[in-house]
Amino acid sequence: MRFTVAGTLLDSCVLGALQGRPAYGYELTQQIQAAIDVSESTLYPVLRRLLQSGKLDTFDEPFDGRNRRYYRITGQGKAALQDAMTAWHSYKESIETLLTGGIEP
Amino acid sequence: MNRSDFMMELRKALRRLPPSEVESAVGFYEEYFDDAGPENEGKVMTELGSPKAVAAKIIGEYAVNELNQKTTWRGYPLWLVLLGIFASPVALPLALAVVITAVALIFTLVVVFFSLGAAAVAVVFLGIVVFFAGFAAMGQSFGTGVFFVGYGLFSLAVGTFLAWGIVKLSRVTFAALQKGLANYLIRRGERKQ
Fold first, then answer.
1. Residue B63's closest CA among B33, B95, B94, B31?
2. Which of B20, B61, B193 to mutate to test the interface with A (most CBs of A within 10 A)?
3. Partner-chain residue, chosen from A24, A41, A68, that has the shortest CB–CB distance to B48
4. Fewest CB atoms within 10 Å of the CB: A25, A46, B140, B173?
5. Residue A55's CB: how many other CB atoms inside 10 A?
């Protein structure tokens, strides 16, 4: 069974993946895909969105005679991630309550 | 399809976006292919899917995020504005209902104005016919002939004035309708923020 990870949840997952250290596009995509099932073509729009809203920034590093663009979390991104963690905890609990039949009909 | 075909198709599918957006997206995927390595080229293309599908996601994201932040949608092509509305994760039925209603309303107005215009043209033609009939009648009865000539001119004038008035009214109506729809869409977009 599959649950779709999209929208703000996916954005937060990407922020989470980048909280430790910056990563470049391919590397980041592989990391995310190791954890959740998203299509390859989903990541670029997410990164663009996070860049536009200032939660990520980029820097370039030369590699093997070409350029590699790294994505890095910003202060704003870290704050957004914190909010996401809080929201996720309460969301997770609500879902689990329902799945375990904890709410009386 | 090989990598360069893929990238060419991608670029082509993205051509309606601003150049900076296109370069940014193309650059991302060129790097992606480079980092995956030539041995994985096929695998990457399979996983990415068709260039058109990849482009669709990019355009959709641009439409939803970029346009919804603007205070005015002036200058953006209508298809992109509509995509921004329909691609947003908000009740699609509502957006669809609004667009269908607007289309129906526009169609009705077009028919109404066309009918009014046809009536005005008829009055003009009547005027012309009676005008010339008046001259023909002068032979029999000068007074009647003159009356018809006069009436013909009057009808011609009234018809022309009506036609002008209808054109003016239709222009004003459609401009107001367009503005009203645009404002409604903008307000809806702002409420979603």
1. B95
2. B61
3. A41
4. B140
5. 22
pLDDT band of residue B106 (cuts 50, 70, 90) is confident
Cβ atoms of B133 and B147 within 8 Å: the answer is no
Q: Tell if the CB–CB gap between B32 and A26 is shorter than 8 Å.
A: yes
| Separation between Cα atoms, residue A38 and residue A98, nearest integer Å | 25
- The closest alpha carbon to A11, from A66, A54, A58, belongs to A54
* Chosen from B24, B43, B50, B68 to mutate, greatest number of chain A CBs within 10 A: B24
Structure-model confidence comparison of residues B136 and A44, the more confident one: A44
Q: Which residues contact A10 (CB under 8 A, 6 or more apart)?
A: A38, A42, A46
Whether the CB-CB separation of B152 and B163 falls below 8 Å is answered with: no
Q: Is the dihedral of CA B74, B79, B82, B84 positive or negative?
A: negative
Cα separation, A70 vs A63, in Å, equals 11
Evaluated on CA atoms B95, B99, B102, B104, the torsion sign reads negative
What average pLDDT does chain B have? Answer: 84
Residue B168 Cα distances to B102, B132, B161, angstroms: 21, 29, 11
- Measured distance CA(B131)–CA(B129) in Å, rounded: 5
**Model pLDDT for residues A81-102, shown as the tens digit of each residue:** 999 999 999 999 999 999 999 8
